[in-house]
Write a structure and sequence with these properties.
single chain, 400 residues, mainly beta, nine-stranded mixed sheet, seven-stranded mixed sheet, 4 helices, elongated, Copper amine oxidase, signal
Length: 400
């Protein structure tokens, strides 16, 4: 079994082996009937211990995946740790239309000494007319060394955001901060600056992420800073601009509860390939290892021919493979079941889940009275700071 481990980053990535994802139904561990009561009676998002059951060897549910129309997608996460006092971590051009920007950068300055920094995002109008920018979704966290909390809360805020009707104007050749909070935040050594934005522009523009001293306005730093830092590769998921930002995923056929527990696994880099884009500073193709910031809109068809309901859980499946995978935290949007439809942080009763036998209850779905087909709808994006993949396990449960 071969694992690829990104050892240098706190956004840990571990890939499942091709053997486990080959479609072979290996014998899973034992599911005990008493687990039904634990899952059905648990609160949504809480950890439920299932000793002897959680395994990567569960049968995998095959699925079809389609690219959905979406915004131009930019990510700044390579170098993840900005080691110099002042420098540019990303610079990319965008065309008029919608843009998604995901910033995941850490103040890594140790020489000549550890120092407070500012990490900010700027947009410059490269067109010939006034640029109008309007925020569609906004997620901005205070810098912190608690990467798990930032990754989990960042997704929750993004999913909940309704945007802003305010339209800002930028004259040709001029620039302004994309997020005013970043201009005010002080990022201490080893703290993460994290922003997740979606906005529209009506002129060509240039996006820059840079680190500078806290007293210098980002626009001023943009005038003097010219060094685009080389990517580090081993310490970040990637950087650049990507044409894929949204997926629609549907399981093949209809999952039947009589078939027993099964799993759907995405963002593992084997069956679900990493998206490709372009990194302008080197003028070459880029790969987004982890598909962070990509939205998976999932539709899981299921039915119950044996009268059982369906519990949907996840777990930290890579915890046994490396010291880097000691925690997982995620956020998803899930359709109605025993609990109302909406955003759920996983886990909801603590910061992270660590390893088996811990599972996290996402939702419980009652069977239809006549056994007819139902559809689970789920929005998922790979959670920053956590190990990947995030397996989804469908468990038939007796709800009586």
């Amino acid at each position: 079994m071969v694992y690829i481990i990104n050892r240098m980053t706190k956004k840990r990535i571990v890939l499942l082996s091709a053997v486990l994802l080959s479609g072979i139904n290996l014998k899973a561990q034992t599911y005990k009937p008493e687990f039904d009561k634990l899952l059905v009676n648990a609160k949504q998002g809480t950890i439920v211990e299932l000793p002897g059951f959680l395994s990567e060897k569960l049968p995998e549910i095959p699925y079809d995946k389609m690219i959905l129309p979406g915004p131009q997608f930019i990510i700044s996460d390579d170098p993840e740790y900005i080691r110099v006092p002042e420098g540019i971590s990303l610079r990319e051009k965008v065309q008029p239309g919608a843009v998604r920007l995901y910033m995941y950068n850490v103040n890594g300055v140790k020489e000549p000494q550890k120092m407070d920094r500012k990490i900010t995002a700027l947009i410059r109008n490269t067109g010939k007319s006034v640029l109008h920018i309007r925020m569609l979704k906004y997620s901005s966290q205070k810098p912190s060394g608690n990467y798990f909390q930032i990754g989990k809360q960042g997704l929750a805020d993004y999913f909940a955001s309704k945007g802003d009707e305010k339209i800002r104007e930028i004259k040709p050749g001029q620039a302004l901060p994309i997020d005013e909070k970043l201009e005010k935040n002080i990022v201490k050594y080893d703290e993460l600056a994290h922003g997740f934005y979606e906005f529209t522009v009506d002129q060509p523009a240039e996006i820059t992420i840079l680190q500078t001293d806290p007293a210098t306005p980002g626009v001023k730093a943009l005038e003097r800073v010219t060094n685009i830092l080389p990517p580090k590769g081993e310490s970040g998921a990637g950087r650049g601009i990507y044409g894929v930002s949204n997926y629609l995923l549907r399981n093949k056929g209809v999952f039947d509860t009589q078939n027993g527990p099964s799993a759907i696994t995405v963002a593992e880099g084997v069956k679900d390939n990493w998206v490709l884009g372009w990194e302008s500073s080197r003028n070459q193709q880029a790969k987004l290892v982890g598909n962070y910031g990509v939205m998976y809109n999932m539709e899981i068809k299921w039915k119950s021919t044996n009268g059982k309901g369906l519990a949907l859980v996840t777990w930290n499946g890579r915890s046994a493979d490396s010291k880097w995978c000691n925690g997982m935290a995620a956020t998803m949007v899930v359709s109605k079941g025993l609990f109302k439809e909406g955003i759920i942080q996983l886990p909801s009763d603590r910061l992270i889940t660590r390893s088996a036998p811990e599972s996290i209850l996402i939702q419980v779905f009652p069977p239809a009275a006549n056994g007819e087909e139902q559809t689970i709808k789920l929005t998922y994006s790979p959670p920053g700071a956590s190990c990947l993949p995030t397996p989804l396990i469908l468990i038939p449960v007796d709800m009586k």
